[in-house]
Specification:
Elements: E1 7-11, H1 16-26, E2 31-36, H2 39-47, E3 56-60, H3 66-80, E4 85-88, H4 110-138, E5 141-146, H5 163-181, E6 186-193, H6 199-205, H7 207-215, H8 225-236, E7 247-250
Parallel strand pairs: 1-2, 1-4, 2-3, 4-5, 5-6, 6-7
């Protein structure tokens, strides 16, 4: 690689972890294209990037759509003239309500199941697929997917029968792509956050839910969106160039 200014795509940039990741990369002077499905939230996100060292742009897209994901990569190359890494943060549980966790199987429709996979797995797959030609041509590229502790933990209150398998699929996709693309100089890793409690999540699930999960941490506190962003940035930056196919749990010691 040359000393060209590094450029990244961050999906889910208008959310907590995605926004924190974009700002973390911008603080190093990198270019960042922040992508999200919500134009309204993107407008709020870009305001939080004011004054940071790097150049930021936004792009609204539904990344579960093949053509839209392809267009995102093309937009980044046209705007910044390069691409070095992608943070696939887009995803999560759909329509979080107090009854979301461990919801009965009878309440999970096939449409909900498919949509959960689309927003978590299809998005990561399509961004990898459409960035591959550019990464192969330059002999270098980095992808960091966002899985979840729910992909591994056989414990209650972490997800449901759609979300947990979807995040496990993100882990399998990461490991498969690391082998498939490694010979072309493309590194593919993942971060698996534990529970990250925003004010909204705390309000939705209540104090008892928070207390139960706090007791499960080794550190006696939860990881923050900035903790997750730091791990994602590490896996995108040159200091981790010898690492691929790994899943880093950032969960304050919760296993």
């Amino acid at each position: 690689m040359t000393d060209q200014k590094r450029t990244y795509i961050v999906t889910g940039a208008a959310g907590g972890i995605g926004g924190a990741t974009a700002r973390r990369l911008l603080r190093t002077g990198a270019n960042v294209l922040g992508v999200d499905i919500s134009a309204r939230r993107l407008a709020t996100f870009i305001e939080t990037c004011d004054g940071l060292a790097g150049a930021v742009a936004t792009y609204r897209a539904d990344l579960s759509d093949d053509d839209s994901a392809k267009a995102v990569v093309a937009e980044c190359l046209a705007r910044f003239g390069g691409l070095h890494g992608i943070a696939n943060v887009a995803g999560g549980m759909i329509d979080i309500v107090p009854e979301s966790m461990d919801r009965p199987l009878a309440q999970i429709s096939l449409a909900y199941f498919h949509r959960t996979f689309a927003v978590n797995v299809d998005t990561a797959f399509l961004m990898a697929k459409h960035s591959e030609p550019h990464f192969v041509a330059q002999g270098y590229g980095k992808i960091c997917n966002v899985a979840s502790l729910a992909a591994f933990a056989n414990r209650r209150d972490l997800g449901d029968a759609a979300y947990n398998p979807a995040k496990a699929a993100v882990v399998a996709l990461t490991q498969t792509l690391s082998l498939l693309l490694g010979g072309s100089g493309i590194r593919v890793n993942a971060v698996a956050p534990g529970l990250v409690f925003s004010d909204k999540v705390t309000e939705t699930f209540g104090g008892a839910y928070v207390d139960r999960h706090l007791q499960a941490t080794a550190l006696g506190k939860f990881a923050t969106v900035d903790d997750e962003a730091e791990a994602i940035a590490f896996l995108l930056e040159p200091s981790s160039d010898a690492i691929t196919g790994e899943v880093l749990r950032v969960s304050a010691g919760t296993r």
